[in-house]
Design a protein that fits this description.
four-stranded antiparallel beta sheet, mainly beta, seven-stranded mixed beta sheet, 11 strands, single chain, 116 residues, 55% strand
Length: 116
């Protein structure tokens, strides 16, 4: 079992910034891709950003250059820097890890609330 521990959510005003962190209980070398999804009330879970083992990144269309995903392999941690936050970014943000053996794990979620 892989544990993903998220932190960094909270309440911020529109236009502000937050940085989310997700630490895995296994080495990053066992992870194919790691990233963030979000789910707002009444909506489906959607991709925010993902970074692969090779360092490639992919973002949801709504990000439009506002967010940046990065990783620190020495800490088994992925970060999501979110800038220019909008009220529509309000959601629970979930960390996700896809392992090289095709197992998928999720974090418990962290709430991000952007006030107008």
């Amino acid at each position: 079992q892989v544990q993903l521990v998220e932190s960094g959510g909270g309440l911020v005003q529109a236009g502000g910034s937050l940085r989310l962190s997700c630490s895995a209980s296994v080495t990053m070398f066992l992870i194919n891709a790691m990233g963030w999804y979000r789910q707002a009330p009444g909506k489906q879970r959607e991709l925010v950003a993902v970074i692969t083992r090779g360092g490639s990144t992919n973002y949801g269309d709504f990000v439009k250059g506002r967010f940046a995903i990065s990783r620190d392999n020495t800490k088994n941690t992925v970060y999501l820097q979110m800038n220019s936050l909008k009220p529509e970014d309000t959601a629970v943000y979930y960390c996700n890890a896809d392992l090289i053996d095709h197992r998928r794990f999720w974090g418990q979620g962290t709430q991000v609330t952007v006030s107008s």
